[in-house]
Amino acid sequence: MEISGIISALLIGVVIGVLGRLVLPGRQRIGVLWTILVGIAAAFVGTGIAAAVGVADTRGVDWIELAFQVGLAALGVAALDRAKARR
Question: pLDDT, tens digit, for every residue of 75-84?
Fold first, then answer.
């Protein structure tokens, strides 16, 4: 993977993290850095799931892959928020 691919993956991860956070109702008690890290992880895992299911490469925007990524980011943000609330 080239440096441009890594940078674009990081930027997409940031967007995915923010979208995952926006999907959840209410206020989350995690910071911006955690949101970004969850988004990056969700972007990579969501792409892997979409490739395994066979919907990673479609014409135009990959809406199903995006839905996997945002859903995983929302789950990750919710899990971190619950973990932080227990402390």
Answer: 999 999 898 8
Q: Which residue has the tokens 């956070």?
A: 21
**Against a cut of 0.90, is the pTM above it?**
no
Rounded Cα gap, residues 39 and 14, in angstroms: 6
Q: State the burial class of residue 5 (Cβ atoms within 10 Å of its Cβ: 0-12, 13-18, 19+).
A: exposed
DSSP code per residue over 42-66: HHHHHHHHHHHHT-SS-SS--HHHH
pLDDT band at 1 (very low <50, low <70, confident <90, very high): low
**Tally of residues, the chain:** 87
